[in-house]
Amino acid sequence: MKRGDQQYNALAERIGRLHLQQRLGIEQEHVKQIFGRGRNFFHIENWYSVHALMRLCFRLAGIYERGRHNAADIRVCENEVFIPDLPAGLDGFTILQLSDIHVDMSDAISRALNQRVTTVKYDLCVITGDFRARTYGSFDAVLQGMVKLKSALKGEVLGILGNHDFIEMVPGLEELGVRMLLNESALIEHNGEHLYVVGVDDTHYYQVDNLDKAASAIPAESITILLSHSPELYRQAAHSDINLMLSGHTHGGQVCLPGGFALTYNINAPRRMGRGVWRYHGLQGYTSVGSGTCVVDVRYNCPPEITLHRLRCGGQGG
């Protein structure tokens, strides 16, 4: 995507020239980078010789195939979110969260995800970033995989970019019917009531999130759901009248010790925010372990998931 291109101009008008310029510039610096900028000094996703070595180690240990089986055994998790003053028409409103789907990583995992989403009922689907496995290069395989996933999903689908995703993917994803939120918000109507979904650009590596801009058009005291690829935005969200923050990025550790103990969550946030339900002051949050895999297509002691968040009246949050 270059200055003057039709897609460049359309995105620049939509999200602002400076945001687009920053995103594209950092993307170019990030290509094939193993050591350097971002929240992390070491980017293992880009060191592909290490990926092969890890697969070899799992094979020699005799656990590789078990790990691949684990990675395709996608669970359905449910989370009830109690919100004071939730309008009666939104009681029971259900959000399906998919995260870190990495659709170009493994055909077996993608097939399992496509099948699993057809078994659940929901009112809205959100995808909290990392559509692809690699962090650079062609994303044709991602768009091809998304054709199949989108056909398995029902109703409206909203998405945000993760640290693996290039902004050049946005036009293709939106042509498939995935509405991408780039520091933007969407109004959702249901049973005569409405809520807002705010989506910020990647806060982990690119650090081009802008919650102020994304939520600027939302009336006070509205029911508001925030999509942020990483939970690292928790402080700002807690003081922004957000009712629920949905994140991913961590994979729950992906390869964990017995008992699900993760060696790292790769986030600049408290460890308790690395997976599942958490709270910070009045903010309710949930960090999905995701349905895909990164680096190697295995999981140990950390089952993949899709998540149903059901809004309920009452409780102490908000």
From TrEMBL:
Residues 94-252 form the Calcineurin-like phosphoesterase domain. Keywords: Hydrolase. The keyword ATP-binding does not apply. It comes from the Bacteria. The keyword Hydrolase applies. It comes from Mariprofundus ferrooxydans PV-1. Gene3D superfamilies: 3.60.21.10. This is Predicted phosphohydrolase. GO terms for molecular function: hydrolase activity.
